[in-house]
Amino acid sequence: MKPFISSYESNWQETFLKTFKNQNDFVFYLGKTQKFFGDKDQKNPSDLYKFLKNAGCHTVDVYDIDPKKPIASLDKVHAVMEYIPDDFKDKTHVVVGSGSLLDTIKHALYLKYGTEVSLWSIPTATSVTAYSSPFAVLEQNSHKKTYPSLLPSRVIWVEQIIWHAPTLMNLSGLGDALAIITSSYDIWFQKFIGVSTQSLSQDKVYSLIDLIFSIQDLSFPKPLTDLLIQLGLMCGEWGSTSIISGFEHALSHTLDLLSHEYDLFPLQSHGLQVGLATLTLTGLETSLHNVPLKEDKTEKIKAHCKLLKVPYAHAIEIYQYKRNILKNVNLKKFQEEQPFKVSYKKLQKFMVSHNIPITAESLDIPLKEFNWALNYAPFYRDRISFWDGQIIEKL
Ligand SMILES: [Zn+2]
User: Fold this and answer.
1) CA of 270 to the centre of ligand 1 (A)
2) Separation of CA 284 and ligand 1 centre (Å)
3) 349: CB partners within 8 A, 6+ apart
4) Which of 34, 67, 231, 233 would give a disulfide with 129, using CB separation of 3.0 to 4.6 Å?
5) Which fold has domain 170-393?
6) How far, in Å, from the CA of 242 to the mean position of ligand 1?
7) What's the 269 CA to ligand 1 centre distance in angstroms?
8) What is the pLDDT along the chain (395 residues), one digit of tens a residue?
9) Residue 129 CA, ligand 1 centroid: distance in Å
10) Beta strands per DSSP E along the chain
11) Could you tell me the distance, in angstroms and rounded to a whole number, from the CA of residue 82 to the centre of ligand 1?
12) pLDDT value at position 351?
């Protein structure tokens, strides 16, 4: 595997002039909102797009390609592929943007050229783990799915660019990283019940959680960028994103689905939703006492899906599959073997100290809809979770 390089620069124009001297070797992919970079107080913004054009660089303006198609969707990937010439395989492809843009290009290049092409990223926020992982999360028909994609080999953090990220986007990276608290629990649970053979070291997880809790100041984001890079690389080694995408992500994706279907609340930042979902599940864990999935809930699930106006056939299928596996699980034994070490109070205190929302309402999600999402999340995907039984039992 190619070594992964993560480096830091301060001024973007100097960085571009120095790094991309042979402009013909590079192709740049740009987004709409992040074309202008300047001083911290935004007094002297410069147009990156013009700068690259003047330097004779090849640029692809991703937002302008079929603006109706949402970024980070399979449709957008296919639209963008048309704009990548066939003879660009030897060039280094550089994404100047954040999660959605990177996910789109990572998958488009993968489909076009396979894995033998060079991809770099210049993030415009510290918002995702995608900077260092070989996966892309893309939407199709309001459903989010993980796709294999190109592994970036280099990420260049430019202070002047990160300054321009809205604070919420940087917070989003921290919120998304919290997922390791609950997703690791799901991974251990899957091994315990025998649906997976992969094991995850407790020491590794707890060292990551310690690293998260040691982050204090986001105005200097290096500890956060290091954490995001580590998590992305771990996904590559693990072979899937499940290591940082447990039930908290199923809940966040369900919220996205409800926002799309109903338009009842605006689509929220992925990472902030994940942070809130992680806290919610951590709170549920402490009240766990039931043996899961004895009673047949098929009718209740049908009714719940009707309430949400989502089709229920697939949800019932997932339920039957999970019920068969989970009805004989000795939850007590699992909890004795795997004591949960992150307390709800500690997590809540940490989130409050960073202004990460800790209630649905403070994220503009009405409590009623949040509970709908929580009750539907077990049926969003067939990946078995520790929280499935507890939530389905309460339906
Ligand atoms: Zn995520």
Assistant:
1) 6
2) 20
3) none
4) 231
5) Dehydroquinate synthase-like, alpha domain (1.20.1090)
6) 10
7) 10
8) 567 899 999 888 899 999 998 989 999 999 875 556 666 666 666 788 888 888 888 999 888 888 888 888 999 999 999 999 999 999 999 999 888 899 999 999 999 999 989 999 999 888 888 888 999 999 888 788 899 999 999 999 998 888 878 888 888 999 999 999 999 999 999 999 999 999 999 999 999 999 999 998 877 678 899 999 999 999 999 999 999 999 999 999 999 998 887 777 888 888 999 999 999 999 987 666 565 677 899 999 999 999 988 889 999 999 999 999 998 888 888 888 887 779 999 999 999 999 999 999 999 999 999 999 999 999 999 999 999 988 988 88
9) 7
10) 5-9, 26-30, 36-37, 46-47, 58-61, 92-97, 118-123, 135-140, 143-148, 154-158
11) 28
12) 97
Q: Please give the distance, rounded to the nearest whole angstrom, from the Cα atom of residue 249 to the centre of ligand 1.
A: 6
Return residues with CB closer than 5 A to ligand 1 (ion). 176
Q: Where in the chain is the domain with CATH 1.20.1090.10?
A: 170-393
Tokens linked to 22: 């042979």
CA dihedral 326, 327, 333, 339 (to 10 degrees): 40
Q: How far is the CA of 89 from the centre of ligand 1 (A)?
A: 29
Q: CB–CB of 341/186 below 8 Å?
A: no
Domain 5-165 has CATH 3.40.50.1970: yes
Tokens of 315: 């949800």
Please tell me the distance between residue 117's alpha carbon and the centre of ligand 1 in angstroms.
25
Residue 124 Cα to ligand 1 midpoint, Å, equals 17
